[in-house]
């Protein structure tokens, strides 16, 4: 990585789970965010104004591809700010973007359907997790409402619209970052997690109005279905990582999700 820059540049790890992200610093003035082997999808995200601007892409002799983006000073959104107009408008822009959808299809992505999600959950949950009454109840809910979770609308979904993936810059710009889990699917996947996590139920209709949708029985069921599915996947993931406290926290949320 260092040989891409002169000696006046300092390269430091940027953290993250993959260890593939770095920060390039020069004289405490210039700052770039570098990442190794990022998907070509990043270029389209940059062109659409959804992530910070892509400065350059370089291929190394070993075949690795390095991308550099402008480093923007900012912060993650607060829980309260997720209920704001900017979030709804940017998520609408993402879900309506034809260039994003075209690029993901070119990269070999096919729509992720509820049937595939349910099969993955049924095969990944171990017996100990399934024996938990709330988990068993959630699995039954997914099975009994599979047909109601089907949707013809297929868009690019981020897949993890957690508040710490939203970057609000010092220049009052909003970006959605960390697109490694991007999928083609029902927009209810993103909408459900966001609304259940950050927006009071009495404000759902108003928030969706800013996004451009009407809250009806179909959308409400699909959001509930996908939130329950993601909760079950998260429970097993945390158990596999021995994060028992976090696993228990999500199990306790299941009755709230199913009662909505």
Question: Might you state the CATH topology name of the largest domain?
Answer: Aminoglycoside 3'-phosphotransferase, Chain: A, domain 2
Mean pLDDT: 92
Give the low-confidence spans.
none
Number of helices: 10
Distance between the termini: 50 Å
The helix/strand class is alpha+beta
Number of domains: 2
Radius of gyration: 20 Å
Shape from CA axes? globular
Oligomer: single chain
Helix % is: 40-55%
**Strand residues, percent:** 15-25%
CATH class bucket of the largest domain:
Alpha Beta
Q: What pattern of helices and strands is seen along the backbone?
A: EEEHEEEHHHHHEEEEHHHH
CATH superfamily label of the largest domain: Aminoglycoside phosphotransferase (APH), C-terminal lobe
InterPro entries: Aminoglycoside_PTrfase, CcrZ_PhaseVar_Mediator, Kinase-like_dom_sf
Domain Aminoglycoside phosphotransferase: 17-215
Organism: Peribacillus glennii
Protein name: DUF1679 domain-containing protein
Keywords:
260 residues; alpha+beta; Phosphorylase Kinase, domain 1; Aminoglycoside 3'-phosphotransferase, Chain: A, domain 2; 2 domains; 5-stranded antiparallel β-sheet; globular
Please, could you describe this protein's structure?
- The chain has helices at 41-47, 85-95, 98-106, 114-124, 127-130, 133-144, 188-198, 204-211, 217-240, 244-259, and strands at 9-13, 21-26, 30-36, 54-59, 65-70, 74-76, 155-157, 166-169, 174-176, 183-185.
- It has 260 residues and is α+β, with helices and mostly antiparallel strands.
- It is built from ten helices and ten strands.
- It has two domains: 2-71, Phosphorylase Kinase, domain 1 (2-Layer Sandwich), CATH 3.30.200.20; 76-259, Aminoglycoside 3'-phosphotransferase, Chain: A, domain 2 (Alpha-Beta Complex).
- The mean pLDDT is 92.
- Helix content is 43%, strand content 18%.
- Strand 1 and strand 2 (21-26) form a beta hairpin.
């Amino acid at each position: 990585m260092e040989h891409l820059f002169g000696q006046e540049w300092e390269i430091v790890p940027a953290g993250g789970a993959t260890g593939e992200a770095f920060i390039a610093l020069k004289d405490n003035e210039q700052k770039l965010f570098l990442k190794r082997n990022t998907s070509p999808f990043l270029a389209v995200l940059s062109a659409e104004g959804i992530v910070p601007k892509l400065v350059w892409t370089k291929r190394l002799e070993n075949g690795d591809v390095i991308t550099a983006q402008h480093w923007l000073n900012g912060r993650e959104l607060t829980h309260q700010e997720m209920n704001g107009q900017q979030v709804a408008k940017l998520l609408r822009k993402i879900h309506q973007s034809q260039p994003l959808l075209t690029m993901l299809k070119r990269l070999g992505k096919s729509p992720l359907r509820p049937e595939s999600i349910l099969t993955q959950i049924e095969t990944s949950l171990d017996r100990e997790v399934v024996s938990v009454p709330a988990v068993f109840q959630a699995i039954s809910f997914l099975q009994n409402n599979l047909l109601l979770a089907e949707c013809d609308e297929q868009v690019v979904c981020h897949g993890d619209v957690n508040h710490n993936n939203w970057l609000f810059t010092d220049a009052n710009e909003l970006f959605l970052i960390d697109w490694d889990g991007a999928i083609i699917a029902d927009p209810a996947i993103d909408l459900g997690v966001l609304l259940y996590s950050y927006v009071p139920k009495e404000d759902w209709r108003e928030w969706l109005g800013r996004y451009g949708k009407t809250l009806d029985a179909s959308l409400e069921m699909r959001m509930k279905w996908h939130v329950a599915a993601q909760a079950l996947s998260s429970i097993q993931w945390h158990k596999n990582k021995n994060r028992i406290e976090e696993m228990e926290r999500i199990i306790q949320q299941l009755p709230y999700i199913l009662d909505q």
